[in-house]
Amino acid sequence: VSADPYSAMVRELFANPAHSGDLPDATVARIDDQGVSVQLAATHEGGVINSLRFRVWGCPHLIAACEAFCAAAEGRPAGELSDFHAVEIMRTLSVPVEKTGRILVLEDAVQSLGRSVCGGAVPQ
Amino acid sequence: MAAPIYLDYAASTPVDQRVAERMFECRVSAYANPSSNHVVGRQARSNIDTAAAQLAALFNVEPETLIWTSGATESDNLGIAGGARYRKNRGRHLVTMTTEHKAVTDVFSMLEKQGFEVTWLDPDASGHLAPDVFAAALREDTQLASIMYVNNETGVVQDVAALGSICRDKDVLFHVDAAQAVGKIAIDLESLPIDLMSLTGHKFYGPKGIGALYIADRSGCHVEPLLFGGGQQRRIRPGTLPSDLIAGLGLAADIAAARIDDDLAHLAEMRAVLWDGLRSVDGILVNGDLDAGFPGILNVSVEGIEGESLLLSLEPLCVATGSACNSKSQEPSYVLRALGRSDMLAQSSIRFSVGRQTSREEVLYAARRYREAVAHLRKIAPGEAR
Fold first, then answer.
1. Helical ranges in B62-101 per DSSP H
2. Shortest Cα–Cα distance, A124 to chain B (Å)
3. Which end of chain A has fewer CB within 10 Å, C or N?
């Protein structure tokens, strides 16, 4: 079947969102914009992200992007959160350009989380 | 991926095997131009005559009242634009509904730009147009009204008998887009006051690319052509007729006529089983009228769920959605918005449409799949989402 709007990676991440859910005592950031909602929760220690979880109300590309981000960011320095840009994840997942606004909500949520983590944790 | 389960019969139906064989036979044995007077041409023309008789019998009309077109979209264009232009010297006011198919609404929008005035009527919350609301919209200068028989998204059935009677009383041309009705519910144009009626073959197990416009044989009921270039079909719709497609459409009509009651009973049973499996989902809403609607369509929305993700979660079900993400329009269903649904509910809508081949096992599976998908997506969603 041609013209599948979803790449194989999007399908896989959408079907198996291993990082969906909540974390106890986590720092949380949530953005509601562009008709979607993205909530990220992180635990961190010594400037390193230990665990990440997400909750999303949005399209399959956004769910897949959140899963991909969480999987990649665990174990990384918290300071990198502020440098996160959605363009790379869009390229990796072959997200169509018309979905840019929604994926940018993830970018906003990540940067908000970065500010919270680095500027003083806000417990959940 | 698992084998697809087709529950999108309102979008298109599989061609009946007998119809496919009939078309093949026409292609190889009666391939000539039906306007040619030699023996093969006469055979092609004879096949068209047979098909016209078969289709005409489905509505209880004379074959001469039918004009072949490429499908319902062209029929709608010809009926509405052609009818409005034919009577433009009498008046330029037209009436339609906001919940019509784009093949209708876009024609009216075009006519508005050409100097016609259009009154757009909203349905009530169940999707119906009350006859008194319709009557109040008609004016002295109203020349044409177009109301669809069965809504393609919700299955809502309009009272075309009552609406048509109002039009007859006021000498207003009454066009009906019956793409979702023909071959599926009994239509007797001998008794129904319909002047112009659009249909297409592929909605009732016939081929794509062929449709027809019924034009009642009465004074003042006529259309101006949209196409020019030949004398076929009394110059109303010129062009070489695709006799193989027409033969297929005719046979599809013949088959439908013979089994329309059995088909309706089957659709009603399948929809009931489907709804029984869905009704326990928290926050689920039926878009349309479950009791009085066409039984082949069940359109539901659910609170707190994003439509495109729901659609992907439902694979391998082949269903339709009102989600903006999955259509080229980039806007939630305008039909459901007109019924008063919020953008969020409209874009979470799923249209299940069942057909002749739909089995009980398929709809039970579909219901289970829907319940699981909703539960999965709610688990992912943030608290108080939407």
1. 72-86
2. 13
3. N
Angle at B370 between CA A10 and CA B282, to 5 degrees: 115
Q: What SS3 class is residue A51?
A: strand
Picking from B343, B380, B385, the nearest residue to A63 by CB comes out as B380
Is B167 an annotated catalytic residue? no
Show the tokens assigned to B88. Answer: 């433009």
Query: Which of B304, B306, B381 is nearest residue A59 as measured by Cβ atoms?
Result: B306
B386 pLDDT more than 90: no
The interface predicted TM-score of the complex, written ipTM, equals 0.92
pTM, entire model:
0.92
CB B285 within 8 A of CB B146: no
Q: Which residues contact B121 (CB under 8 A, 6 or more apart)?
A: B95, B96, B97, B98, B129, B133, B134, B137
User: Which of A63-77, B77-91, B137-151, B335-349 has the lowest average pLDDT?
Assistant: B335-349
Nearest-angstrom CA–CA distance, A13 and A19: 10
List chain A residues with CB under 8 Å of B304.
57
Whether the ω angle into residue B316 lies within 30 degrees of 0, i.e. cis, is yes
Task: Give residue ranges of B with CB < 8 Å to any A CB.
Answer: 304, 306, 308-309, 312, 325-326, 330, 343, 379-383, 385-386
Nearest alpha carbon to residue A38 among A10, A67, A11: A67
Cα A45 to Cα A50, A118, B9, B187, B200, distances in angstroms: 7, 11, 56, 73, 66
Q: Which residue of B has its CA nearest to A15?
A: B313
| Distance (Å, whole) CA A54 – CA A14 | 13
* Tokens read off for B144: 């044409």
User: Which of these is catalytic: B26, B221, B318, B325?
Assistant: B325
Of the partner residues A11, A21, A60, the one whose CB lies closest to the CB of residue B309: A60
In angstroms, rounded to a whole number, what is the distance separating the alpha carbons of residues A95 and A61? 6
